[in-house]
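look at this one:
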Amino acid sequence: MKDPLHWIREELDIIRDKNLFRVLTELQSGQSPEIVIEGKRYILLASNNYLGLTTDPKVKESAQKALEKYGAGSGGSRLVSGSSDLHRELEERIAAFKKTEAAILFSSGYLANIGTISALVGPGDLIYSDELNHASIIDGCRLSHAEIKIYKHCDVEHLSSLLSSDESRNKKLIVTDTVFSMDGDLAPLPEIIELAEEHECMLMIDEAHATGVLGKRGSGATEYFNVEDSVPIVMGTLSKAVGSLGGYVGGRRELIDFLRNRARTYIFDTSLPASSLAASLTAIDIIEFEPERRNHLWRLIEKFKSGLKNIGLEVLPSHSAVIPVLIGEAKPTLDFARALRENGVFTPAVRPPSVPQGKCRIRGTLMATHTEENIKLALRAFKLAYDSMLNL
């Protein structure tokens, strides 16, 4: 009998031929500035742990205390038996931090986007989505079965033209990242808000890579642009700068009540464990009341970007801790990442489908726990990798 899964082998061969095959790299340490892989130490430039809070002693202590009190798991979905006082406390803390009336927790940012978008719109409705939005936004749009219109990246004129041609639609939703995960650039949020208001269109933003990094309190792009009262649907994660696990949506109380009753990824999902909740509560306090961490991070960002440009590398415009170095095709990007690792830096090659064809890159990310010496050594590794590439 012919193996019904025979086609998988052929697909894998195609993936390998295109230099797009992915393998796991196992870390034998936590998300610190220096990590251990196969017994060797490397500078880590590939973590979304932007403020270093994953390994912060106060955050870990909070998680340990909650683990002792509540146990390892939550035991069920929020609407059955898995909702605790910590869930409510964290939702209230997020709402205060993001300056919204209320907030709702999901088990991940991916689930927050999928559940929220598919609850807000459906068949016959219309979504306007930035062409470089995260996969979780894209999947949420597809699962909604609404009509999807893609506007050019951060192009408000293109978005305006699309909105102007669809005045008769029933429900319309604009959805965009604020900081884009692979480019690190910033959406023109004030202009998008203006268009949403002009065309009576719902607006949802994803603050995953902005929270903790942007704004005086680290609240994100809404604080950075001073538009905290102007975005009705604010989504974000607890797994990046917050250093823990989970996702959330903030907005008016009626929006949150609606999502509790309609978002399938909330209703049918086991809730976050207490250790993650407690870690997030402590981390948000650190983000808001210890700005020196964020200030140090930004000093490192500017130093690193300047050093990369001095080497001669093409650094894409970025306004975040995401610093993309454009290489081009998959094979030379893999070679560059390999050379970095040989010189003591771990940051993998980013290839399609994460980025468009021909725009493969090294996606460097910095943490507030990196030191000046870490940056110096990392720049040395990039210089050696670049020289190696030129000599091929």
About this structure: The mean pLDDT is 96. Residues 291-311 form the longest helix (21 residues). The chain has two domains: 20-49+291-390, 57-289. The two ends are 48 Å apart (CA to CA).
